[in-house]
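ENTRY TYPE: paired fold submission
RECORD: A
CONTENT: sequence, then structure tokens
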Amino acid sequence: MSSPDKIKAIVLTCDRYRATTEHVIFQYGRLWPEHPFVFHVPYQELGGVDTERVRYLTSPSDIKGTVLHLLADIDDEEWIYWCVDDKYPIQLVTDKIASLISHAMRSPEVDGFLFCRCRATLTNPKLTLYPRKVKNPFGDVYFERRAWFQIWIHQLLRAKVLRYLFTHLPDRIPSAKVMDELKDDVPKLPEHRLFVTEENFAVFGESTRRGVITQNCYESMMAAGIELPEWFRHPNGEHVTLGEL
């Protein structure tokens, strides 16, 4: 199936982690050569050359300022692909994902769409999901997500959802890790309806744990031929992935 029209992929990253950003972009290109994403990469001093698939944008150094800056010229209703650099794709059922994304973008009742069902949305659905099943015309089943569960995994969102979340986070966010707790202090608006597929169609890896590169990310980046900065060359020995196919 042909991919949807080009979608702005909003990458949460900074200069220090440019290697992980390159890895994310490389993996999407390797696994899904016809993917619809144009990666919007923020930077402070370490720019790059724009291509058809990558745009480099000067941004503030703080996390909240970076995200809101990347969203500044995007309409509330426009679809974006939320793409934190601490996750990267390992396996993607690309034809299915393309079809699901295409349908979600034509559905006015959908404001967020996740095709990786894992962790709490899989193991604790009573806490994380509403019980009613929603079917699309092709028979695929979705669940609506409660609160902000799994908001850091790569997913399709209307810009207004991400803008609302980050507008209400504190101005000072000391690290990306603490966002997981801070998000729980921001009530998700009921009209911002976020969905996840009943079946999983992707596997993602975590790039770091507590600022140290994971073993799986290290091995993947080595295989990709991506040069690592000196401080990033000592993996923690952990393999951390999300989702199973």
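RECORD: B
CONTENT: sequence, then structure tokens
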Amino acid sequence: MNTNAESRSLPLPEPPGFERVLVWDAPLRVFHWLMAACFAGACLTAGREGWRDLHQTLGYTMGGLVVFRIAWGFAGTRYARFANFVRGPGEIAAYLRRMPRGWGRRHIGHSPAGAVAIIALLLLTLATAVSGWASGDKPTADGWWQEFHEGAALAMLALVGLHIAGIVFGSWRAGENLARSMISGTKLGVPSEAIRSACYSVALLMLAAAAGFWGYQWAGAATVAASREQLREEAREQPASTIEARREPGDND
């Protein structure tokens, strides 16, 4: 019977010499949870006219986060870089074949299946954000954009569900809570696998940029709302002023 650690069925007991090591940097964690919060908010506000501005703001935020994640995939720390986790079709297929049996090589970063989900979510988020902009900001927008936007959002919702299921399965398989790891940034590993820096300054800049954008959107929405209210007020006053202007000077005698 093969007892090699590479091929044993998981979950495994904590291997000797393993400890909590820093794997996920702070910008990656901020990206992950901001994306999750914005996606949940966008789903809850979809199709509600009174929440249209908030829905758009959340969607644009997600689009901006994806742009950041693409850049961070080249400039970030070890496990955030695409070169670390993007794999070819053969390796992905082999990993997926082993998944149901719970066998396979340990991945301290993203697994091949997780990498597929990440790339797909990034592409779907961009498609959803762009189609939402095309269909939402233009009063004469083609209805095709709206249909595409809704379809992309539904596909994204389904993929998020699969992603969550994969996290649950992966947590059982690895013997550690992977969602909690995305909060703390640490996973079980050896010291040599740890990243050197959490890059907190970049994470703070991300939060500041998001807060600044939300403030800008809020101010813009307030200005538009005030303008609309002024137009409604003028519309209510218009009939009375028109009547006064048309009255003959001797009508009050």
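NOTES ON RECORD B: The chain has one domain: 19-204. Confidence is low (pLDDT under 50) at residues 1-12.
STATUS: closed
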